[in-house]
Structure formats: structure tokens, C-alpha cells
Write a structure and sequence with these properties.
single chain, 324 residues, alpha+beta, Aminopeptidase, 2 domains, 13-stranded mixed sheet, 12 helices, 27% strand
Length: 324
Amino acid sequence: MVAWKLFDGDDARWDDALLALPDHNVYQSSGWARHKLSQGWRLRRAIAGDRAMVQALYKKFPGGSVLWSRGGPVGEPSLWNDDMRRALTKGLGLCYFRMCSYREQNAEQAAALFSAGWKRPKHPFNRALTFHFDLTKDEKTLFDGLTENWRHNLRRGQKRCAPPVHWQDPKAEELIKVYRRMEDWKGIKEHFVEGELTSLLSHLKDGIILMRADAQDGTPVALRACVRQGDRAWDLLAAASNEGRKNYASYAIFWALITQCQKLGVKSYDMGGADPDKARGVFDFKKGTRAKLVEFLGEWDWSTFDLARRGFGWALKAKGVGDS
């Protein structure tokens, strides 16, 4: 049987090993870890030979710790067991551990997780749904596959906005301005503070692909970014001002981002989650691309003291930890 142990190598070795596993994702990468460390999290990593890995962020509290693994573990689900939990939580006192796997839903694997002591959290952070856009098809085939309404809105955006550009080396304050314009007209809370975006741009710099759409006078009215890892990419940032919305800039900029990804060898694009109940407009936008709606294994939790599990889970959701 493969034994779990704490990983003692450097970031480069971690990332190389991660890319060798079929369900690798950016949220288990060293770049994402460094970004979250800058926000007060600590880090533990464990490996089971070359068959499974897990990167967990954690915070310590009097008497115990809370661990959160977004996108992890990766590798064989049959190994996501008590041996893994012991390796990660040794010396951390009373622990609550939540993970969120982005593997596609599989009834047999879900049953194995239940048998290994995992439970479904009472208060999940997000819906276990996303859209996967297959970029192995040529641009014309992708375009023809769009719904008629999506194609119509794309043409509107391409006509009314200046051609989207690949935005390289942006300043966080420039991105914040677009977000604030969007938040003002929508009347919603702030998505980011400037320090968060600075950290994100710094630690994921090599993988970020960012596009910008401008009004005819050169003012940025929309942005969209993904982060690339190998031949996959994940939606990362998206914002549009009221002017951008009226000019259908979101359609033009998403299409420009997709074509840029194809040029760089990306074959699969994760559109960053889907929730038809809480974000119907966003859901319909993504659905209109005719990307594949995928349910993934999603969130599971465990605690050394089971009676505390629900309380920990509720507290983490209230603090918005699911975005970490």
C-alpha cells in the first residue's frame, strides 16, 4: 500500500509532479499557494508516491486548526484516506478539514470517499458544477456551435467596441477601476481589494492570460482573464462596466480570450463554475457557448471531533473561505 508523507521539496518539484497527474489544476499549484500565503494562510503538502498529492491551506486557532484544499487532492481518489489526513494534520491539534475535488462526478469514487470517512458538508461553499469548453476544435467550428443569440451578441460587441487586446503587465489599480465601475452600477459589494489583485498578478504571473476591451475613446470597459497550467486554463477574472454591458463587450472579450488560449496551446477551458439559481445571467452566458456542463466530485469534509464539523463548516462559509 502506498504511504502518505509530507512533501519536503521545493515549488518547482511540486509543480512538475502535479502536472504529471491527470486531474492537475491551478489551485493545487505553488503559484496559488504563494498567493494565499500572502493573505495569512499557512501551507502543508503531502504526497503518496507518484499516485496522489494534496496541497492544503490552513490556519491555527487556540487548540486546533482549519484546513482547506481547493482543487485537491489530485490523483487516485482511493488514496484520499485516513493515512492522508494523518500526514496533513499531525501536530495541528483538533482539526477540521475540507477539500473540493474538480474531478468529474463518479458514483463509485464518491462511495469510496464516504467509506474513507469523508462527509458532504452541511454548508457547501459553491455548487459542484462548471462548464468545460473544448478548445481542440477550430475557431469556425466553435463559432458555429454557439447559440444564435450568443453569436448575435458577439457580433454586436465586435462592432461597438475597439478590438480586444492582450493586456500584458497591467497594474492592479487599473483592473480595480473596471471592477469598481461594475460594482457601482450593479450595486454589489467589492470583489477585490487592490492588494489581493497585486498578489494574484504577481504569484500567477507566468500563467495569466488577460484581455481588455476598450470603448472607442480608449477607456477600458471590460476585462477577462484566465490562468493557464499545461494545456488547461481556468477562468480567473471578469468585469464589465455599464458601458461595456450595453456594448456587449463581455462577448467580444471572452471570444478574444478563447482564441488567444488556442494560440497558446490550451485544449480545455474551465469557465469557472456554474450556478443556475444564484447567478442565472452568468449561467446563461456560459451555457450559450454550448460548452459541456460538468458536475464534479465537489466538497467533502472531516473533523477529528465530528460534533464540531458542522459548526466549523458554517463559520468557514460565513467568512467566504470557498474563494481561497
